[in-house]
Amino acid sequence: MRTLTSADLSLNTATVSKQWTLAECIDGCARHGIGGISPWRDKLQDCGVDRAAKLIRDAGLGVSGLCRGGWYTAEGALTQTVLDDNKRAVDEAAAIEAACLVMVVGGLPDGSRDIDGARAIVTDGLSATLDYARTVGVKIAIEPLHPMYAADRACVNTTGQALDICDRLGNGIGVALDVYHVWWDPDLAAQIARAGKDRLLAFHVCDWLNPTRDMLTDRGMMGEGVIDIPAIRSVVEAQGFDGLVEVEIFSAEDWWTRPADEVLAAMTGALPSI
Amino acid sequence: MRTLTSADLSLNTATVSKQWTLAECIDGCARHGIGGISPWRDKLQDCGVDRAAKLIRDAGLGVSGLCRGGWYTAEGALTQTVLDDNKRAVDEAAAIEAACLVMVVGGLPDGSRDIDGARAIVTDGLSATLDYARTVGVKIAIEPLHPMYAADRACVNTTGQALDICDRLGNGIGVALDVYHVWWDPDLAAQIARAGKDRLLAFHVCDWLNPTRDMLTDRGMMGEGVIDIPAIRSVVEAQGFDGLVEVEIFSAEDWWTRPADEVLAAMTGALPSI
Question: Does the keyword Cell membrane apply (chains A, B) (predicted)?
Answer without folding.
Answer: no
